[in-house]
């Protein structure tokens, strides 16, 4: 019974399964997905953090899995443990790009997925005002990544080498059915201003934003 084994033993087994179904034989991923995700309610913080990492790796391996797993990540981002929340924010930083990538395919689940990602984005931005230094730092990192992702790139853009292949706003069709280009451009400006405003008072917790 999983409840009777130690956290360390549980993590060893889970990591072995992840290695098998993501790296060695991805054809097994769909078969074992629900079994791994079931551990999102485990009592161990480390196990719940593992599930978050698994969600990230699974969605990177198969972008379409985000449509199924975004709700699980949303739940974990509301966890009672600060460490779990921080891990979820880091993962959303990566999966926001996956959400944009998924927007190119056709599925009834796309728009609800994007709506949830958008709400989670707003939740993380609200954490820029968190009293917890760690959470606030992770929210800043998320905002920085968001600014880069939503920055329309041109041939003259100075893009870091490791981010050259990442999706960016300019790759989204301007007539996309649910991702509105103009709105995302405004978001880019808004996030940039928020970041600048945040760093105006580095020695004190950030004040509530007066931006809309």
UniProtKB/TrEMBL annotation:
Stored InterPro entries: ARM-like, ARM-type_fold, Symplekin/Pta1, Symplekin/Pta1_N
Cell location: Nucleus
GO biological process: mRNA processing
Domain of life: Eukaryota
Nucleus is among the record's keywords: yes
Symplekin/Pta1 N-terminal domain residues: 82-183
GO cellular component: a single term: mRNA cleavage and polyadenylation specificity factor complex
Record keywords: mRNA processing, Nucleus
Pfam families assigned to the protein according to its UniProt record, in alphabetical order: SYMPK_PTA1_N
Keyword Glycoprotein among UniProt keywords: no
Stated name of the protein: Symplekin-like
Organism field: Sinocyclocheilus grahami (Dianchi golden-line fish)
